[in-house]
Amino acid sequence: MSETMTRSLLVMFIAGMALQGCADSLPDRLGAPIEGYSHTSAAINRFSVNGNGGPNISPYSGGAKQNCCATLPVKWHPGLTVVVEWVKDPNPHAYADWPKPRYSDAWSKAAQEHEAQYTRHRAVAAVAPYERLGVVNVHFLPCNQVAVTAGLMTPRSPNYPYKFLQKMQEPATCPKP
């Protein structure tokens, strides 16, 4: 090897070592997409995870839409929780009986009266353990309960932490929080 080539390699090696000190370390937290699942006959008109919005969800459905983003730790740790807030429409099919034509004064009045029946909820929910941060899945359950995951698995995966039925019925009485 020539002396010039040896010097060039040495300079490149030293420069490379010096640049390693400039490299950013991996972040502690990242933004993860938010997805929701309603396991009840109610519609979830809007919801948020730690203040960041998720998509609206029809009764007994979900998982088809994502919104951005809930900031969570890259690595799960015991005691990890999120705050979930949501607005629920307990009678999402009532619009079928509203006066016609759509957007008339009578229709708008029916819509306002219907919206007055929406309920608002807030829960601090534990996040199921995850190996790698992925999509934040929020499951809306009977009795205004929620369950949250944030890993790479989907609800259809065999190792998914929850096995909720897609259609769950509200019990006659709910347990007190």
Topology of helices and strands:
Elements: H1 3-20, E1 29-38, E2 43-49, E3 52-54, E4 67-73, E5 81-89, H2 105-115, E6 119-126, E7 136-141, E8 145-149
Parallel strand pairs: 1-7
Antiparallel strand pairs: 1-4, 2-3, 2-5, 5-6, 7-8
Protein model, in words:
With 177 residues, the protein is of the alpha+beta class. The chain has one domain: Immunoglobulin-like, CATH 2.60.40. The chain is built from two helices and eight strands. The strands form two sheets. The chain has a four-stranded mixed sheet, with no helix packed on it. The chain has a four-stranded antiparallel sheet with strand order 3-2-5-6, with no helix packed on it. β2 and β3 form a beta hairpin. The longest helix is centred in the first third of the chain and has 18 residues. It starts with a helix and ends in a 28-residue tail after the last strand. The relative contact order is 0.18. About 6% of the residues have low confidence.
Query: Mean pLDDT across all residues, rounded?
Result: 87
Strands of the widest sheet, in order across it, are 4-1-7-8
Q: What percentage of amino acids are in beta strands?
A: 25-35%
| Number of separate domains | 1
* Succession of helices and strands: HEEEEEHEEE
Structural class, judged by helices and strands? alpha+beta
Distance between the termini: 76 Å
Low-confidence stretches: 4-13
Helix content: 10-25%
CATH domain fold name: Immunoglobulin-like
